[in-house]
Write a structure and sequence with these properties.
The chain is mostly beta strands. About 5% of the residues lie in helices and about 45% in strands. It starts with 10 loop residues before the first helix and ends in a 10-residue tail after the last helix.
Amino acid sequence: MRVFLVAFGFVCALATVANAAASCPVPGSFVVTVTGRLPSGIHFARLAEYEFQGTCDDATGNGTVVQRSWSWHGDDTGKIYGTAKVRIGDAIDPTYPGNGDRKKKMQGHRLFQKSPSHLAQRTGTWTRDGVAIAISWADGVTEEWRHTWQDDAASPLLHKLELTASSDIAGAHYLDNDGTRDPAAETAGVAFGGPGPDFTVAREVPDLIGSYVGLIKRHNAWCGAPNVNEPVASTGLSLDLFHATSTGVLRYVYPDGPTWVFAYFTRPKRNRGVLARRVMLQTSHDWNGDGEIADDIGHTYSGLEIIDASGAVRGFVFADASTAFDTCDENHTTSSIYYLDSYDCDALYGVDPSTPGEC
């Protein structure tokens, strides 16, 4: 199902920092989403923050890195989902008169609602050689990333990195080290960020409303899926079509055949410290026609705001872990998704930031 969802006081100072290292994507703060298959054969979705420290010049760099992450596995059992503690509230929607969901609460990932002490964390070192960035984690895992895009050749405010190899993930990656792409590969990982604000800087819902485009990589775990391993595909998030409710939740309802589809977008409560950029998205068909989806099976997305060096919101990265109601394959469908405010083809498919107009 393709879903079309949806105070910068320090701008000048941060832009100056970015310009000073215009050609260096790292050190900096990046929000990350990765999905793929573990050596055990189980699929997963991971949402993370990578905080790079160190030095860099035009072509090389090195330093330390910290990862904080949430992960969901296809074979997870127990109470993975539950209330996200945010009431949907009253909505005025000219296309849908029903308001039966006003007292319901959004559903989300339980892990995503917890304090920073529940985040998985690891440390490591990084080196940069041209567009290649290599990470060696203290637990022995290694990752290779490629700098594939920046929003301006001379004075970039936002950079994109893509995962090309990881020692703890099996199978091919969507982007190879040589710059070629395989949409059918099981693993895809992307990171957005760069020099600029840290993870305590975020924006509230009114600043997030806009239209975004991006890519999704999904592993379907439900019986009869036409493609269990969906190829990487384009997607969109149109938050400007949503209607704000009395609690500040963004709500969008639209018909799909004989049923209605509900979509909600908001930020969790108590977004403090390194949790400041958290956002949530829930969507489902109202399968039983009772005017709400708290009792329906759909998709639950946990995400992080993409913030550029000026402090502006540029999009989101999401990890999707959603119940596979018949568990034909695994217990949960898993996906990696990002949405970006740039409609530049290179932002989606470019592989070399020094070569604009690649596609």
